[in-house]
Amino acid sequence: MGIEQKVAIITGASQGIGAALVQGFRDRDYRVVATARSIKPSSDDGVLAVPGDIADWTTAERVVSQAVARFGRVDTLVNNAGVFVAKPFTQYTAEDYAAVMGINVAGFFRLTQLAIAEMEKQGSGHVVQITTTLADQANSNVPSVLASLSKGGLNAATKSLAIEYARRGIRVNAVAPGIIKTPMHAAETHAQLGAMHPLGHMGETSDIVEAVLYLEGASFITGEILHVDGGQSAGH
């Protein structure tokens, strides 16, 4: 494989949306660096699995250094890793705060720094955050200040980075999902969770993959927060 073949880094890649993103980018003939705490080695020569906790900055450093050593470049970063803790505000603990901010913010921060530094070398690249529609449309039935604090911060950072790097050929966008069918939601909860969306059903992992791949190919879009949320951000 030639060095000109594009390379995507995907965090939280062991299951759910992350695993689907790995397959989506492979279907586009990207080579993929997939990272997660529990990720297993891949039999696909086009996928490099790098285990590690993204909240630990050394994980980000290993991910990017191994991406460059194995594939020679970094074209796309999808900051998909995230943790969601729904509690009344006054019941959050120091451990909750550390876990959410460590994965959702610290992991994003260091890996994005290192990935953009590689993208600058070639004068092109794309960074996508997976955030949440709750950052824009709070729901009284889902107390989630830590999600809004962390993922809302990523939405703001997306716009700031998009402007900072626009003239350097690097685009930065975000996808803000509603509730998506993943292993974190038991099947018996799907009807109730689906009813929380104006469209009346939950989203599929494929909806998020299609949104990310759309942004990947949309060369005139940067600084966009694309809501894939069944209409939640429009109102209730």
Can you tell me about this structure?
By secondary structure, the chain is α/β, with parallel strands linked by helices. It has one domain: Rossmann fold. Helices cover 40% and strands 16% of the residues. Helix 1 crosses helix 6 and helix 2 (57-71) packs parallel to helix 3. The longest helix is centred in the middle third of the chain and has 29 residues, at 94-122. The mean pLDDT is 94.
Question: What is the fold's blueprint, element by element?
Answer:
Layout: E1 7-11, H1 16-27, E2 31-36, E3 47-51, H2 57-71, E4 76-79, H3 94-122, E5 125-130, H4 145-165, E6 170-177, H5 190-194, H6 205-217, E7 225-228
Widest sheet: strand ordering: 3-2-1-4-5-6-7
| Strand-residue proportion | 15-25%
Which ranges are low-confidence, i.e. pLDDT below 50, for 5 or more consecutive residues? none
CATH-assigned fold name: Rossmann fold
Percent helix, as a range, is 40-55%
Give a short account of the largest sheet. Answer: 7 strands, parallel
Structural class: alpha/beta
CATH superfamily: NAD(P)-binding Rossmann-like Domain
Features:
236 residues; alpha/beta; Rossmann fold; 7-stranded parallel sheet; 6 helices
In short:
The chain is of the alpha/beta class and 236 residues long. It has 6 helices and 7 strands; from the N terminus they run βαββαβαβαβααβ.
